[in-house]
Amino acid sequence: MKLNSHNWKLACLPFGVVALVISLVAWASSSPINISSKAPLTAEGKSFSQTVMQVDRFFEKQWSENEITPARISNDHLLLRRLSLALHGTIPSLEEIREFDSMQGEDRLERWTQKLLADRRFADYFSERLARAYVGVSGGQFIIYRRDRFKAWLSEQLQANTPYNELARELIAGEGLWTGDPQTNYITAASTEGNLDRNKLTGNTVRAFLGQRIDCAQCHDHPFDHWKQSDFEGLTAYYGQVEIQVFGVRQNEELKYEVEDRDTLEKRTVSPQVPFLPECLPEEGTLREKLAAWVTHPKNRRFERASANRIWGLLFGVPYIAPVDDLPAPTDLSQSEPDLLDILGDDFRKNGYDIKRMIQIIVASKQFRLSSTSENNEPEQIERDTDAWALFPLVRLRPEQVIGSMLQSSSLKTIDQNSNLFMRGRRYFSELDFVSAYGDLGSEELNDFPGTIPQALLRMNGKFAKDNGSASPLNSVGRIAQLNISDEKRIETCFLVCLTRLPTELESEHFLKQYQAEPNQSAKITEDLFWSLYNSPEFSWNH
């Protein structure tokens, strides 16, 4: 498919002129990122508790009907680790563990969840997770695409708890310069050598916000679904009047969207149209504003279901329905009662598309608190329980979670936005180097992925593991080794710092023998203990 000859290309101007113009415009538009003033407050109330109970009853009914016994509830330390990995991308620090342990009340996990959501680390971490679904991981054309600015803008929206439907509309319909109006990088990410790939924008919009794959229909009718080629063309026509100009992403109402017939090679004009719910299209606005309103319309169940499935996947490591972007259409659902995504999606819509509220509901559910350990060791039964969500799924940590956890375990204090500049810089560059060597999961991170021998060797013998595990006055290994405490307490502290749990009696006895055999080698034995914990399977899984 091609647009008619109104395309603007940067190559038409000398590079120096273009660079000067863009620099001046970027400077002039470098005002602070606008934060929505309509961000709802996350609050627990009667409706909150009712939704949590609905989620619990949904799973309990399934377990009862299939005669499945769910796993036991995990202890609070394990849940603390699980929460930190899901929301901050790292394990909790010893400082945080001590603070959590000092909290009183049966609702301390709920209060701790609110604390994690208010922390800037949540916005920064989740912005990266969502950015992968919106714009992928490629750096793109730097001159018209700034992924760093896009991610920073997205982080600000999450920190302010901007309603998710507003965020989606900003991405689809936004205008302006990619530096001063960073949401427009959603559009410029689809540009290659000055040409805007509108097909890519359509496929990505439907995947990211409606949780369905329509890409196949750009060339022919979908062989297994309801999507037709005319559906794809009609949706793409909503992007037909957007173009990238020197002064940013703009609408050009003179443009007409044309496609070329594969057989006759003749061009024909395509009018914008949606494949379902045409009554949800507004009468006013630009084409992209109309598309954005249709995508996020309260009657469009696909939007709320896709949102719930993606957030569920980011918390559990796997989506409720996989793949995350290939959900069944609501009209195809056979059950008479609402499923999990309907329950979460309904609450999401009725409460202002509040992402933090949805996260709190999921965390408060029984399913999130289940152990990953089954009482039955039969492989078939474990697989059955896993499919029924009667166990918390075991998923390998993402590369940035692995390095984030290794770095945090090197410090007894919390590494966050309040840490000194050296520590924050060390984390930033360590993550870049480690992810590059470990391998990035790209935008398909919610799919299953195997561990590799090179990855294991990197954790065991990589430069960061060696530096991090060598005792010094500046890291946790050296500080724990020098503490005036018993060896039993030293072992307990190492386990808390690395695995967020106390050692078992057998583990404690094993390592205590090492300290007793060489009483003057505390630093060396502590280094060995850290190395063992880093490379235990437990360290690199989300359990």
Task: Summarize the model shown.
The protein has 543 residues and is mainly α.
- Helices, by number, come to 24
- Outline type: globular
Task: Give the % helix.
Answer: 40-55%
- Which stretches of 5+ consecutive residues score pLDDT under 50? 1-42
Q: How confident is the prediction overall: mean pLDDT?
A: 85
Return the domain count. Answer: 3
- DSSP strand (E) fraction? under 5%
Strand order of the largest sheet: 1-6-7
Count of individual beta strands: 7
Oligomeric assembly: single chain
Structural class: mainly alpha
Give structural notes.
This protein folds into three domains: about 35-120 and about 300-385, no CATH class; about 140-150 and about 160-290, no CATH class; about 435-540, no CATH class. Helices cover about 50% and strands about 5% of the residues. It is built from 24 helices and seven strands. The strands form three sheets. Strands 1-6-7 form a three-stranded antiparallel sheet, with no helix packed on it. A two-stranded antiparallel sheet has the order 2-3. A hairpin with a 2-residue loop joins strand 4 (about 240-245) and strand 5. The longest helix has 20 residues, at about 45-65. Mean pLDDT is about 85; it is low at about 1-40.
